[in-house]
Amino acid sequence: MAVETVAEIFTGVFRFLFRILNEVLLEFLLKGTGYFICRPFSKNINPDGFVVIIAGLVFWGSMFIVAIKVYGFIQVDICLDAGGRYNYQTKTCLHQN
């Protein structure tokens, strides 16, 4: 009896967390962003459609790639600001003593 009660509590907690994860990631980030991207091109866009989800995925994938590139540029800039030389072949900062 106690095991069943604990199992029901865990089921309720996991169901709640999955619902929040679904709302935030799928509904807001993917569908919301995709809808705002697709809306200027078509007035008859389905907010829950496949095109909206793909547009959101492409947008966030592009943002991830851009963030990786910007991080690399920032690392080079930090090296140069510290007075070092950046070796692009080995991707290391060389400090002169």
Overall 3D shape = flat
Individual helix count: 2
Mean pLDDT: 90
Order of helices and strands: HHEE
Radius of gyration: 23 Å
Strand content: 5-15%
Distance between the termini: 71 Å
Keywords: Membrane, Transmembrane, Transmembrane helix
Transmembrane segments: 50-74
Q: Can you give me a brief rundown of this structure?
A:
Helices cover 71% and strands 6% of the residues. The chain is mainly alpha-helical. The protein has a two-stranded antiparallel sheet.
Task: Tell me about this structure.
The longest helix has 37 residues, at 2-38. The N and C termini lie far apart (71 Å). Helix 1 packs across helix 2. It contains 2 helices and 2 strands, in the order H-H-E-E. It has a two-stranded antiparallel sheet with strand order 1-2. The protein has helices spanning 2-38, 50-81, and strands spanning 85-87, 92-94. The protein has one domain. The protein is mainly α and 97 residues long.
Chart the SSEs and their pairings.
Elements: H1 2-38, H2 50-81, E1 85-87, E2 92-94
Antiparallel strand pairs: 1-2
Helix pairs in contact: 1-2
